[in-house]
Amino acid sequence: xxxxxxxxxxxxxxxxxxxxxxxxxxxxxxxxxxxxxxxxxxxxxxxxxxxxxxxxxxxxxxxxxxxxxxxxxxxxxxxxxxxxxxxxxxxxxxxxxxxxxxxxxxxxxxxxxxxxxxxxxxxxxxxxxxxxxxxxxxxxxxxxxxxxxxxxxxxxxxxxxxxxxxxxxxxxxxxxxxxxxxxxxxxxxxxxxxxxxxxxxxxxxxxxxxxxxxxxxxxxxxxxxxxxxxxxxxxxxxxxxxxxxxxxxxxxxxxxxxxxxxxxxxxxxxxxxxxxxxxxxxxxxxxxxxxxxxxxxxxxxxxxxxxxxxxxxxxxxxxxxxxxxxxxxxxxxxxxxxxxxxxxxxxx
Length: 348
Fold this sequence. Notes:
Layout: H1 16-19, H2 23-34, E1 44-48, E2 51-52, E3 65-74, E4 87-95, H3 106-111, H4 116-120, H5 125-144, E5 166-171, E6 181-186, E7 189-195, H6 202-209, E8 220-224, H7 228-240, E9 253-256, H8 257-265, H9 275-281, H10 293-310, E10 318-319, H11 343-346
């Protein structure tokens, strides 16, 4: 049974221990004050779910991102299928080459479906971030200039778990994709769009030829399953490796999907709400391999779309702010508690 929230009734005496908000509710209320709702509903939601190296037995181990996927949902009115709102419009995915511990350890390769060959052939985090920004800053304006829900990156009719037919990634001279279309260059790396084998390439070609609407970026909001992916893994590594030049202000606040599901379906509680249990709240099952960054991302996309179909509007309810203590006692201290945190990261 979901926990009940709200004030005690007039006929019931107030018990400060029984009736005080839970820790997760307190954090969500602080976030609501720090990040007021958009004056207009965001048109596009970019869901990010990174994967990082790990060594649970060593708290001093420096985790590094090794997979960076982002999927853009067209959240404008009128889309969706069944209980799912919006459509999956574009997807970017790249593995990332670690530099502090270049060799993947057993803890990492046994936890997630990734190999040494995957990361050896991948760009470093700075290039991967630039590729993600180039993807978002090129494709979102083109989506904004397109009719709502006219661009779809998956096969079928937009249901949960459908396979990708259009993707974007980074390639170089040693890693080319036949039939791919160049979008832009980052040093020796090229952002390309490509289609799955047998898929019609005409929609991708038409999208890339379209003149973008730059104002569409104002309608973009990031999203993640909780605070960890952006606040801890991404921001922490960016700061540690001095990659602040590759940060963007739209990364500094996001739609915390886990909090949104807790508010919509669980009376404000997020206890036990991992990705699998969030999907179950909407009658969905995990599709793919858990801890694969791209599979996790696409399942979180379905949760976000289920929230849209449920009537929950995307909004910034979490972010890099010194006023929120969302991770005290977890993994490591949030980046915003560091007095040397870059101004760009703490600015809303």
